[in-house]
Specification:
By secondary structure, this protein is α+β, with helices and mostly antiparallel strands. The protein is built from 5 helices and 17 strands.
């Protein structure tokens, strides 16, 4: 009798529903499912906190909205905002720098090119060492190195003020007399594309110009089928495709540079000059010791 009395005391007034469920199970009758309401979730959450256990996660009605619908709505909103933004050009009215592009500044209520950027067709293009995100942000014959700074194409040198890149344009991969409007017009030159700034065919970044055609650039030690594919930044004439191993190697009379990227000329006088310089230092040291003694 004592266990039954103890059970009654623990149940209290709130145990009626639980006891009824037990009686129903003992009698074999199925227990009807109870509807789950928000108040039930909050009650379970409160009880769990009171006993120090982990509470169940409360579900907010907003989670019922499908996430893909939110994503589509966000994309539509961004597209609408982008379409509504006006095109900002040089000499456009402004009140502060916020009204201009990052390459411009507001001076006398007009957007003008800031220092380091130069006017080109109503735009301000970054000079050498100017901040950039894409190649289109830089001046002609330059590219955006690592999406950070404008730099001249290979084999071209920057001018004193950094406003242009000078040198042999054919060396950096521009094909003369090759007007184009789209990349399709440049397929006859191999790995070339149509440069939008000049409307001329130009070799891709991973290609180089040789013999009026753009070849895929293969570095020292890489596989090759023709010497035209082998390329080094400074001395391209010192590299060839080995016919036996089919790899790019330095030609006879040159050696690999310390950075393993180029083939340098072998200067036979370098060793003799260095030895003579060392002997002169030793002789000066011995002479100084004799004088001091």
């Amino acid at each position: 009798m004592l266990p039954r009395q103890s059970h009654r005391r623990r149940g209290g007034r709130g145990s009626g529903g639980h006891a009824a469920a037990i009686r129903g199970n003992l009698s074999g009758a199925p227990t009807p499912p109870q509807p789950h309401t928000v108040s039930d979730s909050r009650a379970a959450h409160t009880v769990a906190l009171a006993h120090g256990s982990r509470p169940p996660r409360l579900r907010h009605p907003v989670t019922m909205v499908h996430r893909s619908a939110l994503g589509a709505l966000g994309a539509l909103l961004l597209c609408s905002l982008a379409a509504a933004l006006p095109t900002i050009v040089v000499q456009q009215d402004c009140v502060s720098d916020r009204d201009c592009l990052f390459s411009m500044t507001c001076a006398d209520n007009k957007c003008v090119c800031r220092d380091g950027y130069h006017l080109y067709k109503d735009k301000c293009l970054g000079g050498i060492e100017a901040t950039c995100n894409y190649d289109e942000d830089c001046i002609v014959d330059a590219y955006c190195h690592n999406h950070q700074k404008c730099a001249c194409m290979e084999n071209l040198l920057r001018s004193d003020d950094g406003s242009k890149c000078t040198g042999n344009v054919t060396a950096m991969g521009r094909l003369t007399d090759s007007n184009c409007h789209e990349n399709f017009d440049c397929e006859q030159y191999g790995m070339a594309f149509c440069e939008s700034k000049t409307n001329m065919c130009q070799c891709r970044v991973d290609a180089h110009l040789r013999g009026g055609r753009c070849w895929e650039s293969r570095k020292l030690g890489e596989g090759c089928l023709s010497t035209d594919q082998c390329y080094t930044p400074r001395f391209a004439e010192n590299v060839e495709c080995d016919k036996t191993n089919h790899t790019c190697v330095c030609v006879l009379g040159s050696r690999i540079s310390p950075d393993f990227l180029d083939c340098e000329f072998v200067d036979t006088s370098t060793a003799t000059t260095s030895l003579s310089h060392l002997m002169a230092l030793v002789a000066s040291y011995i002479l100084a010791k004799i004088v001091s003694s």
